[in-house]
Amino acid sequence: NAGVTQTPKFQVLKTGQSMTLQCAQDMNHEYMSWYRQDPGMGLRLIHYSVGAGITDQGEVPNGYNVSRSTTEDFPLRLLSAAPSQTSVYFCASSLGQGRYIQYFGAGTRLSVL
Amino acid sequence: KNQVEQSPQSLIILEGKNCTLQCNYTVSPFSNLRWYKQDTGRGPVSLTIMTFSENTKSNGRYTATLDADTKQSSLHITASQLSDSASYICVVITTSGTYKYIFGTGTRLKVLA
Asked: What is the pLDDT of residues A65-91, one digit of tens each?
């Protein structure tokens, strides 16, 4: 039981490049979400999914895309990277929303030059 | 505006000492309040979850309190250890249709030998 696995751990991109951050969980959780963590700020929600085939925008969705074709996987796509997207990205999963424990991955540290 | 404020921003204590971290919130309607521990370079890990009717919850040497009337919570760490060095994040969940997670910016704790 690996929990929530994020890859890669580190990534450097040039402005305008695209990439996909991977997130997988093996706990059969319905709810998955992506956050970004920036210095001096709380975690901010980018996108979330309440189940396979269902996604919705969070607080800061611009410049990011998601899809959820399986319960296990929830990739985050950066369409055209910008320096403002330099951040640490966390994927989280839980059985449901609100009352359930959230489990976080170890994070992906992304730098956009 | 829904906000979660934590104090102090950072704290240094000696191993074996106790400490208390504060969380004030202006979130409504209230669903539950959580404390997370985040080690450097890792994702947050859930310590406690408290609903409106719970005013104390313990997890080992960690004890969280909640005063829903004054909208304040605290996390008390007893007999600190070097491994307690981490950031501690307070999160308040609100629901008015959909759940929303409001994250504080955290308190960075350093425990010295």
From this structure: 999 999 999 999 999 999 999 999 999
* Angle at alpha carbon of residue A60, lines to A54 and A64, rounded to 5°: 60
Per the listing, tokens 């406690």 go with B48
Closest CA to A102 of B32, B36, B57, B5: B36
What pLDDT is recorded for position B96?
77
DSSP, res B28: S
CA A63 to chain centre: 13
Across B71-75, average pLDDT: 97
A97 to chain B: which residues are within 8 Å by CB? Answer: 98-99
Instruction: Fill in the amino acid letter for A49.
Output: S
| Cβ A23 vs Cβ A76: under 8 Å | yes
Predicted pLDDT of residue A1: 65
Tell me how far apart the alpha carbons of residues A21 and A9 are, in angstroms, rounded to a whole number: 9
The torsion angles phi and psi of A55, rounded to 5 degrees, stand at -135, 160
CA distances from B84 to A101, B15, B101 (A): 21, 9, 24
Q: Which of A4, A42, A97 sits opposite B103 (nearest CB)?
A: A42
**Of the partner residues A41, A45, A107, the one whose CB lies closest to the CB of residue B105:** A41
- CA distances to A3, A46, A73, A94 from A27, rounded to whole Å, are 6, 22, 11, 8
CA distance A4 to chain B (A): 10
